[in-house]
Amino acid sequence: MQQAINIIITVITVISSIISALYLPKALYVIVGLFTTRRFPAAKNTHKYAILIAARNESAVIGNLLDSIKNQDYTGELTTFVVADNCDDNTADIVREHGCICYERFDSEHRTKGFALQFLLDNIGRDYGKDAFEGYFIFDADNLLKKDFVSKMNDAFDSGAKIITSYRNTKNFDDNWISSSYAIHWMRTIRTTNRGVSALNLTTRLQGTGFLFAAETIRKQGWIYTSLTEDRAMSADAVADGFRITYQNDAEFYDEQPTVFRQAMRQRIRWAKGHIQAFGESGGKLFRNIFRSPASMQNFCCFDMLTTIYPRSIVTFFKNLLLLILRILLVVLAGFLWGPFLGLFVGIGTSFLSSWGSSMITATYVLITEHRHVPRLPWYRYVWHVFMFPMFEQIGKISMLIALFSHVEWKPIIHNRNISIDEVAGEK
Question: Which residue range is the domain that position 140 belongs to?
């Protein structure tokens, strides 16, 4: 019996090591991103863009976003469309007062942001034509754009990029440990993924807002991304269909982060559910495309995106749980010896502390390398934010488990930070 258990433990450990080895290429992105990222030459042409914003009861913040759009230094044609989605405040009035085009939507059954964007694009296609715009930006109502944001994104678009994401900064970094953890989370993606993959001309992923996509990327099927995380679904489909998602480091915008634990937990569970859904919807297509012929770098991009949407934390949890049960069983079969029991739980504690320390090191690395994008604070505030970032990581793991076994509905995050782009940029 003991021999059989040891064989099972060995097999699980070997399989886990093989899966971990598949993630080794991501270490290269970290190294490359430390030193460089992709740079785009100044655009020779301006392109015709539409800005898409889905807003639900965003009267406190949307005016500042529209002002930051109005003050862009971009000289090309730029039209802003807002869908006031199931609003019971004056969001639509504020949008129209700013000279933007607003469609109002009332549908209590289909409540995700993806459905709102689908409604908006359908109306734009009907009223302006499906080929009226060369590309579409997507923003959340709480965002703020630096003055040259669209110009910098146009540089990337004019260079031939079809889907482009940007530098996501934070309005309210130091509100509390929750908002700072979100900020570090976004900057970590920039440092450990976006910079490196763009320099290597590979593909990154979209993260909810602040991105631009060419009209041709959705021309065949339209906007079909209505799940809980439309960004992750679109990322997977785009790569499977042969497109690459690049990153423009010079285009920066600001986002308001949650500060209430309950809201943060709800959002993380929604993200987790969408992550699982994206793997179920697009994982098979990505896997098949790894082996498509003729072989090209796009095959590797499909592999890389597959490892990104693979729900690794769920698999790791059940693997560790199974190993723990098997090792406890070994101790029991050996006769309840206290030494092995103690060693087992010391190992669990050591693993937890190692994970916490690793997350702290990551947060420290991010804050040092991205210090120009972080507000100036007393040193002890940075120490506090670094120390609490691992808690944010643990919440993400717990959220994946909750999402796996629960029904998740989309609910809006409340935004109330009424601040202009000049004010928030002045704090950096």
Answer: 1-414
Q: Give mean pLDDT, residues 93-121.
A: 93
Of 245, 236, 237, residue with least CA distance to 203: 245
Q: Is residue 343 part of a domain?
A: yes
Token pair 């009223």 is found at: 127
Domain of residue 356, CATH code: 3.90.550.10
Work out how many domains the chain is built from and give that number: 1
pTM of the model: 0.91
Examine residue 280 and state whether it is found in any structural domain, yes or no.
yes
pLDDT at 305 (0 to 100)? 94
- What is the rounded CA–CA span in Å between residue 220 and residue 163? 16
Q: Does residue 350 or residue 267 have the better pLDDT? A: 267
As a whole number of Å, the CA-based R_g of the chain is 23
Do the Cβ atoms of 302 and 283 come closer than 8 Å? Answer: no
Instruction: Give the pairing of strands 163-170 and 211-214.
Output: antiparallel
395 contact partners, CB below 8 Å, separation of at least 6: 264, 265, 268
Judge whether 350 lies within some domain.
Answer: yes
pLDDT score, position 336 = 60
Q: If you average pLDDT over every residue of the chain, what do you get?
A: 91
Assess contact for 26 and 312: CB atoms under 8 A.
no
410 Cβ contact list (under 8 Å, min separation 6): 111, 112, 113, 228, 270
Query: Does 419 reside within a domain?
Result: no
pLDDT of 144 reads 97
> d(Cα 208, Cα 108) in Å, to the nearest integer?
22
**Backbone φ and ψ of 22, nearest 5°:** -65, -20
pLDDT in tens, 136-172: 999 999 999 999 999 999 999 999 999 999 999 999 9
* pLDDT at residue number 325: 85
Two tokens at 237? Answer: 């489909």
Task: Reply yes or no on whether the pLDDT at 110 is more than 90.
Answer: no
